[in-house]
Every structure is written in C-alpha cells, then in structure tokens.
Amino acid sequence: MQNCIETNDLTKRFGKKLALKDFTLTIEQGGIHAIVGSNGAGKSTLFRLLLGVSTPTSGTARLLGADCRTLQPEIRGRVGYVNEEHTLPLWMKAKEITAHQRAFYPKWNQKTFESVIGYFDVDQNQKVAGLSRGERAGLNLSMALAQSPDLLILDEPTLGLDVVARQSFLEALMFTETEANTTIIYCSHQMEEIERVADRLIIMERGELKNNSSPDDFVERVSYWVAEIPSGLPDKGKIPGYLNARDIEGQCHILVADQGNDFGDFLKKNGATAVARNPVNLERAVNAFLTKNHSAPDSRA
User: Fold this and answer.
1) Which of these, 194, 124, 123, 136, lies nearest to 165 by C-alpha position?
2) Residues 171 and 283 grouped into a single domain
3) H/E element holding 235?
4) Which of 107, 136, 226, 241 has the CB geometry, 3.0–4.6 Å to 259, for a possible disulfide?
5) Range of the domain at 181
6) 8 Å CB contact between 34 and 202
C-alpha cells in the first residue's frame, strides 16, 4: 500500500531560524492522524512544504507518491483542506458555493455532502455572511469530504466553535472516517477531541518529530509519580526521562518519559521515603511532553 505522506530529513530554514530539522515522517493511507505541538513547533511550515507552497532547504517530501516540489493539478485535486478561519465568499449563498465547488471535482459525492451537512443547521439559501461560524465550518467540511479526497487536512477546524457546533463537527468527522478511505490529518490543541477521534498521535516540538504512535501507546510512555523527598527533588538533569515536576504541600509530583517501575527505586535512592505511581491521561501526558524544555523542576505543569 502506498504511503500518503513521506518525508526524509526534511529541513527548512528562514534565515537563521530553523523551522524544521531533519524531519522524517511516514503516514500510511487511511485513518485519522492528529498532529499536535506548541506554537512555533513547525506544523504550518510542514503543511506549506507538503502542499508545495514552500520548498525545503534540504531533504525530501512526498504527497500521495508525488514530489511535493512539483505537485501537478491532478495530485492537488485529491487533497482537501479546511482551516480554522473557514473562509468563504461572504456574498455567495451556500448553495451557490456548493455548485461552484462541485463543478471542479469529477469525483464529487453528493450523498456524502448531504450526509455531512445534515449534522449542521445550514440554510442553503442563506448567504455566507449570515451563517454562524459553526455553520460555515459545517459547510466547509461537507464540501471538502464530498470532493472524495484521498487526503484531508484539517487545521484547527473547531477553533472558536461553540459546544454544539464542535460536537456536530466531530460526529460528522467520525462518521466519514468509517465510511470512506480518506486519510485525515487533524491538527488541534484540543486533547479531548484528539482522544476521541485520532488513530495516531504525531507530536512535533521545535521542528522535530517527537512521537508517532497510537494515543494509548503514547500515554504508556509517560508515567506520573508522587514522592515524599525530605531533601528535595534531585537536579532535573539527573532525573532519567524528566518531563516536569512541581512541589505540592511538600510532595514532589513528577512526570517522566520512557521509564519503568524501577524509576521508583531511583527516587528511593535519592532520598524518597514514600513513592506512588499514578495514572496519567492524554492531555497531561502531551502537555508535559511539550513543556519539558520550558519548565524548571519547581514550576507548574
């Protein structure tokens, strides 16, 4: 089976700024692949390189088997894109925009369009200027999926939506994922959304790939420990797998990566009189992973 996306040592510089560094990533066809990262992690740069809007400083990137530096219209037509702004011509009616889009896509699936738009209360005779943000998001998603894309990129698609609109968007997305073989790249800061829809979790930090696994496998990488250490927490540089830590009422709360139960022995050797390992959820694990370069041992997680 052909991979949907392949990058090899992909690097992009903007003057002295290194936006992507030796970024190697493979995304197989099918499923929902969530990409998360702090602001400045390189997500936007990666998308621009994949879509051929920008060219790499070095390394390679392939999209649907084609070199991203020379994407042809046929390849671009197999890619759908929905951004956080849900930008549409304000003066056009919803049905006019839909007809305009349909004319450009031979594989347009009207049944898919009607199924997805059914999750949203969109008046097809209403001008875009009169639609709510959630209704515009629904219209955008409906048209993108009706194009029958091989790849759909969703860049912060629920940002600014109310609870009802966000729920409708996620339900529509999950329905489509089960009915079509579209590969979906879902970029979001909302961990509850990712936990609900994602098959794979891709974490970027400072232009580098830090994780590409299932969300459950990633959570297994992170462990959360509570210890009583009268002498105080060891220097973070000496703590294996250190992510972050904080002191709460005399107890050390510590998050580490890729450590087994023997991490408890490490804490005892460093003065801990009591040690307990606690469960950790996806949001806490991801936040700890992303903030490890910005936190001191006594800072808040």
Assistant:
1) 136
2) no
3) none
4) 241
5) 5-213
6) yes
